[in-house]
Amino acid sequence: LLNRALGNVYQFIFCLKKKNNKEKSSSKAILTDAQSVRFGALYFDLGDGFNEEDRVAVQQNINCEKFSYQVSLPNGIKRVRWDPMRGQACIVSGLRAMTPEGPIEPTTHNGISLEGWDFFSNTQSQYEFHFEKPVLWLQIQGFIYGIDHMYITDFLLRLVKSTSMQHQAIQEVDSRLQL
Questions:
Q1: How far apart are CA 36 and CA 151, in angstroms?
Q2: What is the pLDDT of residues 27-36, one digit of tens each?
Q3: Phi, psi at residue 41, to the nearest 5°?
Q4: How large is the average pLDDT for residues 83-96?
Q5: DSSP letters along 121-152, please?
Q6: Residues 6 or more apart whose Cβ sits within 8 Å of residue 62
Q7: 125-170 pLDDT per residue, tens
Q8: What is the C-alpha separation between 25 and 27, in angstroms, rounded?
Q9: What is the pTM of this model?
Q10: CA–CA distances in Å: residue 11 to residues 5, 24, 119
């Protein structure tokens, strides 16, 4: 893993997962127990922004459990906000979102995205989906890894920021060399 681009991030995540597997029965595990059930939320913007009245709680098993759910959307929907985990830092990977018209890319808020992984170091993880025309349903799938200890989250965020800056610098050098 270390020889791959951004291998240090993958190695760190691998170590966290390995440590979690060794400590599943311990209450001091860094990542939450794989059988934990957490709640996220979907917010619907019908033209007046996001609010608690137009919110649906979504339940998912986290940590190495693939989640997949599909929700019918109300008429007149403009945007959907998805909060993967309410009140807890998390990592989301392999996120795919589909509508009847095909795949849709969300905007990530309060997190850092790096090669298919989204790192949320705070308790406000959010994605936003914008719709150009009426959509009947939205399907979201991927993996969620909850993080219980904030000191690990802060360390992970610093590591990802550093790696992301290194990755951008390498891409800039590559593009200059190709000119």
A1: 21
A2: 333 344 444 5
A3: -155, 150
A4: 86
A5: -SSB-EEEEE-SS--SEEEEEEEEEEE--HHH
A6: 32, 34, 36, 37, 38, 85, 90, 144, 145, 146
A7: 899 999 988 899 999 999 888 776 555 656 666 676 777 777 777 7
A8: 7
A9: 0.65
A10: 11, 20, 15
